[in-house]
Amino acid sequence: AQTVTQSQPEMSVQEAETVTLSCTYDTSENNYYLFWYKQPPSRQMILVIRQEAYKQQNATENRFSVNFQKAAKSFSLKISDSQLGDTAMYFCAFMKRSDMRFGAGTRLTVKP
Amino acid sequence: DAGVTQSPTHLIKTRGQQVTLRCSPKSGHDTVSWYQQALGQGPQFIFQYYEEEERQRGNFPDRFSGHQFPNYSSELNVNALLLGDSALYLCASSSGSHRETQYFGPGTRLLVL
Lengths: 112, 113
Known about the structure:
The complex is a heterodimer.
Chain A: E1 3-5, E2 10-14, E3 19-21, E4 24-26, E5 33-39, E6 46-52, E7 60-61, E8 64-69, E9 74-79, E10 88-96, E11 99-102, E12 106-111
Parallel strand pairs in A: 2-12
Antiparallel strand pairs in A: 1-4, 3-9, 5-6, 5-10, 7-8, 8-9, 10-11, 10-12
Chain B: E1 5-7, E2 10-13, E3 19-24, E4 31-37, E5 44-50, E6 53-57, E7 64-68, E8 74-78, E9 87-94, E10 103-104, E11 108-112
Parallel strand pairs in B: 2-11
Antiparallel strand pairs in B: 1-3, 3-8, 4-5, 4-9, 5-6, 7-8, 9-10, 9-11
């Protein structure tokens, strides 16, 4: 069974600085998708970035980028120029077919 | 363009009762997935509906059932409620061409007393 591990329950960063959130996963599959979702206190899950496993190029979305290491089964999220609005729970997720597995989340606080 | 909507936003039930939660997908989406998110945890996949059929199911008992209507909206039903069913229930929608990319609704907070 696929499992997703986020080893950092909580992190904090100063506004305008860069922070990296870690995620590892376990799977025997070769083709799959990986995601980072953000869940602010309003509780709605917002898609931050996605990565197809067959693509070697790391995905980027404005200030958000990933470091995808397929062999190491690692999928970290880098947030550049952190903003107060980035404060939220961040969930890493793995998907094969329709079954999406989430990690336990990392609570990120951006400090002014 | 309306996103994914869910109703009700909050619900309180007692043990043994039955509950129905509702979800309307984002415009243009035809697939609906349901998740349970216990407090302090990541969401867990319950099941997915496409073309009015359950296509895949996570590790949830038969007390959890669903339905999808011709307009792609969906219901989640939970029978014989247990205290442990207290959670945030999230609905997510996606379209056939990019079914792996899901957009979530705001959720329904269910409290079972």
